[in-house]
Amino acid sequence: MTQSHIATTTKQVSLGTTLRAIAAHRVVWPLAALALIFLIDFLISPNFFSIRVVEGRLFGSVIDVFYRAVPTAMVALGMAVVIGTKGIDLSVGSIIAIGGAVITWRIHAGDPHILILFWALGVGLLCGVWNGFLVAVLDIQPIIATLILMVSGRGIGLMINLLYGGTNPSYTSALLQGISTGHIAFIPTRLLVFLLVFFVLWALLRRTALGMFLESVGGNAKAAYLTGINARLIIFSAYIICGLTAASAGVILSADTHTSDPVSIGLNIELDAILAVVIGGGSLSGGRIYLGMTILGALVIQALTTSILTSGLPPEYNLVVKAFVVMVVLLLQSSNFRNLALSILARRKR
Amino acid sequence: MAEAVTARIEMVGVSKAFPGVRALENADLRLIGGEVHALMGENGAGKSTLIKVMTGALRRDEGEIRLDGQTVEINTPGQARALGIGTVYQEVNLVATMSVTKNLTLGRQPTKFGMISWRAARDVARKRLQRLKIDIDIERPLGSYSVAIQQLIAIARALEDDTRVLVLDEPTASLDAHETALLFQIVRDLKARGIAIVFITHFIDQVYQIADRISVLRNGRLVGTAPIGEMPPLKLISLMIGRELGQTGLRLVGDAPPSDAPVMLEAEGLGRKLIMQPFDLKLRSGEVVGLSGLLGSGRTEVAKLVFGAVKPDAGKLQVGGLPMAGHSPGRSIRAGIGFCPEDRKAEGAFGELSVRENIVMALQSKRGWLRLLSRGEQEKLADEMIATLAISTPDAEKPVGQLSGGNQQKVILARSLVSGPRVLILDEPTRGIDVGAHAEIVSLIRKLCGQGLALLVASSELDELVAVSDRVAVLRDRHKIGEISGADITRDNVIHMIAGTQS
User: Fold this and answer.
1) Which residue of B11, B83, B133, B425 has the fewest CB atoms within a 10 Å radius of its CB?
2) Residues of A in contact with B309 (CB under 8 A)
3) Cβ atoms < 10 Å from Cβ of B321
């Protein structure tokens, strides 16, 4: 009898530990949050999941969530890399603004539109080099170093507008509009562009040792140095990557409005990107880069925004509801909070 | 004899454990009023922990504290202060930008109608400084004074009218000779008032200038206590780093490598100002060279200079017969030098990364970022090392931060072994490791040397050095003072060389 008793308790313990392990796995809570948001959307509007083809392109609320999440997710990928090195990049919105201004300027100057893409990436590269120089070479704290470009970037965008005398110059470009709002074989082009960016970045981080080096520098810079890793160069590369992903998002956002509007383009996108990284399980104390999870984080944020808008709630509620859901996800990810909650539950049972 | 006097403060059977480490095991300390008591011991011997227990900064797990014969409870710094125990910590923890007055009254400002009375505060500050006969402008910011004066102000802050015990933790660490003399003058005054003073330092000569009694801690235990006259430097040093003199150390050394074995590493006049005087060092294939000396003698500095973690400003270094063009950990690793740092948590482990990633990191950095080791190769290396070093982890994917200290240490050792070094530098390889793991690491060291590796081991455990070394380089005050080799390597010989007395 005692033996069977022991057997059942060990079984219970193992079940309990499995449940705990599942609860602690980083993919669970963001995924659960996304599923819950979609479920509520489905209950509110039963045709939430319906997908139809309009003008040769997929349409539907779910597609819309993915579609709109692309710029934030793209910025968040670069942000995840920077945060993995224990840094942060506040200037991504400004990089987008400068990128948009340069795109408009070069189109007005009559450059071939394919060249415009390189201009945009060049802006991202240059901004990344600037941030990387401040952080990696001059050892300025990342939050301050990138604040400089965050503050000045939108002003630089406005000054670029003045180069050809426009205050809010617009443009038309079949290529850029194609990337932003077009579609290839029913699929929105921007989703394909995003997949390309994701794949290139994933290969760069995980098919070379760069990802490991980035994480080692973020986790313990001194140990990384003693392991022979060139910490400065690695941190430098993180800001360049972040500049490039921000500039790529800038191409899409700029083509959306086909105008150079440095004051409002990509406003507050740095905050959504940081949130996406954190919801995806990234820690601001560095040491880990989760690219896939970051996309999930961006989807949670966008799904929330979209569902608040489609649910009929006044848009004024948007920010507060968003903050609430983000808080719940972060609480569930905190092991301290989970242990507290479990101990309270256990006491109730007794 | 001393037992006849009631101790001012007495700590009996104090134990304190931290996760993975027993910092204090049944340690005792007896302080007598009107005496300066030197508390000695190497890094990690438990001095700081013992003092923190006495001053309420840490709670003891076991043991008793008696003040003037009465058992007392000290669980918070506030309780300790109320009982008349004052402390001056190693780092001056005052606010440099605030005035001397504010620093001296911070947290206990005299008030009038609920507001701070600065007039009264200045009176208090002046009174406090008068106790030490210091006359300075109390309105100037603390930071405008020299470190010595700041140190004295810190003492003034710790000292109350009813102070019975005063703890000075490394008060002379950043003082020059003249400043030290000034401090000692004040310490003697305090002593004359019947205060029991604990003096922690790693300067042996200062102990003999000021202390009346010495207690030595090693591995969390009190290993000796005696009046100064009964504890000459030789005995003190042997208590700190080894067992009693005269005991013969067990030598585990196998066949010494032939003297014509190829030279793997050669340093000539390598040094850096203020860090380490230029030194020569030669490591042959298959040889274990120990670095011995007291805390602060330059053991870690020699290791780091050779590895390039501290850049030398003088001298030359050859590895495998080729001169090093520059000095950096990256260059050293590529040239075939492996290094295990002393402070594993701060300088070794990548806590978030897995055991596998931690183990392959040095090899990967040697290969460069483009030539990624395949997942299969990484797993193979990690599994091999987990088996060889008996690292206890459920699998290679567990984050290293979740392993115990000893196992983290093995992971870092594994990292430098995997990078395929010709020369391996180990700084305190067995600190904080349990006995079983210790034996594994020592036997592994021997085995590697049998395969032609040259090894440089810096250690505060003299027995360990005597047991494994083919040659011991002895350091004192950041100076290499000599080498002992072969059969002459005994505990006594090393201690005599450190103490500067010939046997």
Assistant:
1) B133
2) 225-226
3) 10
> Using the beta-carbon criterion (under 8 Å), do A210 and B369 form an inter-chain contact?
yes
Q: Do A228 and B351 touch (CB under 8 A)?
A: no
Distances (CA, A) of A43 to A40, A185, A293, B335: 5, 31, 26, 65
Give the minimum alpha-carbon distance from B171 to chain A in angstroms, rounded to a whole number.
Answer: 28
The type of residue at B359 is I
Whose structure tokens read 């996309």?
A295
Cβ distance B365 to A226 less than 8 Å, yes or no, reads no
User: Would you say how long chain B is, in residues?
Assistant: 503
Please tell me which of the candidates A208, A216, A228 has its beta carbon nearest to residue B350. Answer: A216
* Residue predicted with more confidence, B123 or A240: A240
ipTM summary value: 0.82
Mutate to test the interface with A, among B307, B364, B409, B417 (most CBs of A within 10 A): B364
A1-15, B62-76, B238-252: which range is least confident on average?
A1-15
List the strands of the sheet with B221-227, edge to edge: B85-88, B165-169, B196-200, B36-40, B213-218, B221-227
Q: How many residues does chain A have?
A: 350
β-sheet bridge partners, residue A59: A52
Q: How far is the C-alpha of A81 from the C-alpha of A246, rounded, in Å? A: 12
Instruction: Taking residues A144-173, report their average pLDDT.
Output: 88
Please choose, from the candidates B66, B86, B69, B68, the residue with its C-alpha nearest in 3D space to the C-alpha of residue B77. B86
> Which member of B328, B331, B361 has the closest CB to residue A216?
B361
Of B252 and B74, more confident: B74
Question: Which residues in chain B have their CB less than 8 angstroms from residue A222's CB?
Answer: 346-347
Selection from B464, B423, B460 nearest residue B442 by Cα: B464
Contact B350 A215 (CB under 8 A): yes
Contacts of residue B338, Cβ cutoff 8 Å, sequence gap at least 6: B362, B416, B417, B419, B421, B423, B424, B425
Test mutation, B337, B361, B378, chain A, max A CBs within 10 A: B361
B242 or A68, which is more confident: A68
Task: Name residues whose C-beta falls within 8 Å of residue A30's C-beta, 6 or more positions apart in sequence.
Answer: A279, A280, A281, A293, A296, A297, A300, A329
- Nearest-CB residue to B353 (from A210, A219, A283): A219
For residue B306, the one-letter residue type is V
Give the Cα separation of B112 and B258 in Å (integer). 81
**Segments of B259-333 assigned E as strands:** 263-272, 276-284, 288-292, 314-319, 322-323
Least confident of A85-99, A152-166, A193-207, A216-230: A152-166
Q: What is the pLDDT of residue B111?
A: 79
Whether B371 and chain A come into contact, CB under 8 Å, resolves to: yes
Contact flag A209-B332 (C-beta cutoff 8 Å): no
pLDDT of residue A70: 96
Residue pair A176/A116 in contact by the 8 Å Cβ criterion? yes
Q: Which residues, in sequence order, are bridge partners of residue B318?
A: B266, B323
| Cα dihedral A326, A331, A332, A336 in deg (nearest 10) | 160
Cβ within 8 Å, pair A215-B349? no
Q: What are phi and psi of B407, to 5 degrees?
A: -75, -35
pLDDT band at B250 (very low <50, low <70, confident <90, very high): very low
Q: pTM of the predicted model, to two decimals?
A: 0.76
A57 - beta bridge partners?
A: A54, A186
- What is the residue-wise DSSP string for A187-231? EEHHHHHHHHHHHHHHHHHHSSSHHHHHHHHHH-HHHHHHTT--H
The distance of B385 to chain A (nearest Cα, Å) reads 18
CB contact under 8 Å between A287 and B373, yes or no, is no
CA pair distance B240, B233, nearest whole angstrom: 10
Contact A297, A277 (CB under 8 A): yes
